[in-house]
Amino acid sequence: MTEPLLRMSGIGKRFPGVQALDDVNFEVAPGEIHALLGENGAGKSTLLKILSGAQQPDAGAITFAGKPVTLSTPHDAQQLGIVTIYQEFTLAPNMTIAENVFIGREPGRWPFVDWRKMAADTRAITRRLGLELRPMALVRGLSVAEQQMVEIARALSMQSRLIVMDEPTSALSSSEVEKLFRIIRDLKAHGLSIIFVTHRLEEVMQICDRYTVLRDGRWVGAGAVAETTVDGIIRLMVGRQVNALFAHREPAKAGDVALRVEGLTRRGNAQDPHASVLENVSLEVRRGEILGVAGLVGAGRTEMARAVFGADPFDAGRVEIDGKPVSIRSPQDAIRHGIGLVPEDRKQQALFLSLAVRVNLSMAAHERIGRWRVFIDEKAERDLVEEYRKTLNIRMASPEQIIVNLSGGNQQKVVLARWLALRPRVLIVDEPTRGIDVGAKVEVHNLLFEMARAGIAVIAISSELPEVMAISDRIVTMREGRVTGEINRDAASEEALMTMMTLSAKAA
Amino acid sequence: MTEATRAQPAAPPRIDAVGLMARFAPLIFLLALMAGFSIAQPHFLTPLNLFNVMRQVSVYGLLAIGMTFVILTAGIDLSVGSLVAFAGLVAAAVSKGGIANRFTVGEGEAALGYGWELAALAAIGVGVVGGFLQGFAITRLKVPPFVVTLGGMSVFRGAALLFAGGGPISGFDPDFVWWGQGKLPLPLPRVWPLENLGQLIVVDVPVPVIVFIAFAVLAHIVLRSTRYGRQVYAVGGNPEAARLSGLNVRWVICSVYVIIGFFAGLGAFVLSARLDSAEAVAGTGYELIVIASVVIGGTSLFGGVGTIFGTVIGTILIGVLQNGLVLMQVSPYIQQIVIGVIIVLAVAFDTFVKSRKRTA
Question: How far is B221 from chain A (nearest CA, A)?
Answer without folding.
Answer: 9
